[in-house]
Write a structure and sequence with these properties.
Elements (H helix, E strand, L loop, with lengths): L4 H9 L6 H11 L4 E4 L6 H12 L6 E4 L3 H13 L4 E4 L5 H12 L5 E4 L7 H9 L6 E4 L19 H10 L5 E6 L4 H10 L9 E3 L7 E7 L3 H14 L4 E4 L3 H14 L4 E5 L5 H12 L4 E5 L14 E4 L6 H8 L9 E7 L1 H13 L4 H13 L7 H9 L6 H12 L3 E3 L6 E3 L10 H22 L4 H10 L9
Parallel strand pairs: 1-6, 1-7, 2-4, 2-5, 3-4, 5-6, 8-13, 9-11, 9-12, 10-11, 12-13
Antiparallel strand pairs: 14-15
Helix pairs in contact: 2-3, 5-6, 13-17, 14-15, 14-16, 15-16
Length: about 475
């Protein structure tokens, strides 16, 4: 008999009650039944597996959480540990000694929750540590579950092996109840998630909330140039005081628009955030923002994951998001306190061309991926960054987005992994000949262009909320062509 979840909720999370859908999910999981959870950002998905995990993981049992996002994983573990919960993560940013120490503690059943990147599934030492947990693994949570599906907006090939991993857990005597969670998933993606996990709509029922919330005011506006865009940003921020995020696609535009906005918004603290910042600077900005400063953050989509702030009043997409799913995830960071928040999408013809160029960069050709993998195999260095690889292959350094994306793509395939040093990667295994093909890359590029087309369509809809609801409920058997 597991402990009372209400008591665990009060004692360990300092919360009095669950939301109705959270209550249904927790009861369902504690009854030993699998669940697929599709709830917008900010609606409390994490508690839907964290609370059952603490109820089930008594007497040296451990719940396993797969997450593809290292930064988010680390933030969640830190938040749990601050509450006295025995949680930890294992990923490639750790030193070998740190990983070994955590494997040993995992094997002894010292953790209530262990977070891991899906690439850990293949590691013999990880599997051996799981095998030795005295009371086993009673719960498996798959966060960001849309990464399972090629029809999702962020396919992670390693995620497609979680079904096989579940079968392996069963083979060693563990039968964990499984909960898959994501912020957005169309019917096609939901069915893919179930298929990979070896489930059906009956054995893994859906628990979902509408993708839009009533307190979010969704609007789009067409702009013609930087002056028009600047005016729209300043006016919107003036009408909606409080913390705000303005999203851009290009790092260079963050600096440019910060210079434009600072003299127009003298009372605002303006920060710039992107993936190439020093990790300490990232933490400084995230911490200040989360602590309640009414900052304006100009950011790429690298900002927001793990930012636990309920009172963000404004989200502006100054350049188009790559997909409807990305848009839905990012606006979900606004108004989590239930008060009104403004979400404005600015549509410029030039930005459509920028996004199309992004899609080219984000789908490097198969030949380049093979060259990059070989460069790692031949290198005498333990780890490399994109500039090192470009120098080795082309004989010259300098920024080239295709090389940055090639490293990310090979990491998703499990060929490379990140190191503790920012933007550096190390080789895990050789790239197999049949892992990539030009046909697969072209197919993904077509899907990405289709998603971009959907964003343009959404921006031109008079009722964006209705568009979002219809988008997630439609059958994608025959998606529209760009």
């Amino acid at each position: 008999m597991h402990p009372d979840p209400e008591a665990i909720l009060r004692e360990r999370f300092s919360l009095d009650t669950l939301r109705p859908i959270q209550r249904r999910i927790v009861d369902h999981v504690l009854a030993g039944r699998d669940a697929l959870v599709v709830m917008p950002t900010g609606s409390g998905k994490s508690l839907c597996f964290q609370l059952p995990a603490l109820c089930l993981c008594q007497e040296r049992a451990t719940a396993l959480v797969f997450s593809p996002l290292i930064a988010l994983m680390e933030d969640q573990v830190l938040a749990l540990r601050r509450r006295g919960i025995r949680a930890q993560y294992i990923n490639s940013t750790l030193t070998r000694q740190q990983r070994q120490d955590r494997y040993q503690r995992l094997a002894r059943g010292e953790y209530e929750l262990i977070y891991a990147t899906p690439e850990r599934m293949k590691k013999p030492e990880f599997r051996e540590a799981l095998r030795q947990i005295p009371a086993g693994v009673p719960l498996l949570a798959v966060d960001e579950a849309h990464c399972i599906s090629a029809w999702g907006h962020d396919l992670r090939p390693t995620y497609q092996q979680i079904g096989e991993f579940r079968a392996w857990l069963a083979s060693i005597g563990f039968q964990p109840v499984t909960i898959a969670l994501t912020a957005t998933a169309t019917r096609r993606v939901r069915d893919d998630i179930r298929a990979v996990l070896g489930a059906t709509r009956t054995t893994m029922p859906l628990f979902a909330l509408p993708i839009d919330r009533q307190n979010l005011h969704l609007a789009a506006r067409e702009v013609w140039d930087d002056d028009d865009k600047t005016d729209a940003i300043v006016r919107t921020l003036g009408e909606n005081p409080g913390a705000a995020i303005v999203y851009f696609s290009l790092i260079r535009d963050l600096e440019r628009f910060a210079d434009r906005l600072r003299p127009l918004l003298p009372d605002r603290t303006i920060e710039i955030y992107h993936g190439r910042l020093d990790p300490r600077e990232k933490k400084r900005i995230s911490h200040r923002f989360s602590e309640g400063h009414d900052m304006l953050v100009l950011a790429t989509n690298a900002f927001g994951m793990g930012v636990d702030r309920p009172d963000i009043r404004t989200i502006i997409h100054a350049q188009m998001p790559a997909s409807v799913e990305a848009y839905a995830q990012e606006i979900g960071r606004a108004g989590r306190d239930g008060r009104d928040a403004m979400c404005l999408l600015l549509l410029a013809q030039d930005d459509i061309a920028i996004c199309q160029q992004f899609i080219e960069w984000q789908n490097p050709p198969a030949a380049l991926l093979r060259e990059v993998a070989i460069a790692f195999e031949r290198s005498r260095d333990a780890d490399l960054c994109a500039e090192d690889v470009r120098l080795a292959i082309r004989g010259k350094a300098g920024p080239d987005p295709r090389f940055d994306q090639a490293l990310i793509t090979l990491e998703k395939l499990g060929v490379l992994e990140q190191t503790p040093i920012c933007d550096r990667y190390r080789l895990v295994r050789p790239l197999e000949d049949d892992e990539i093909s030009e046909e697969q890359i072209e197919e993904k590029k077509r899907r990405d262009l289709t998603r971009l087309l959907e964003v343009v369509r959404m921006a031109r809809e008079p009722d964006i909320a209705s568009f979002l609801r219809a988008y997630c409920e439609r059958d994608e058997a025959a998606p529209p062509q760009p």
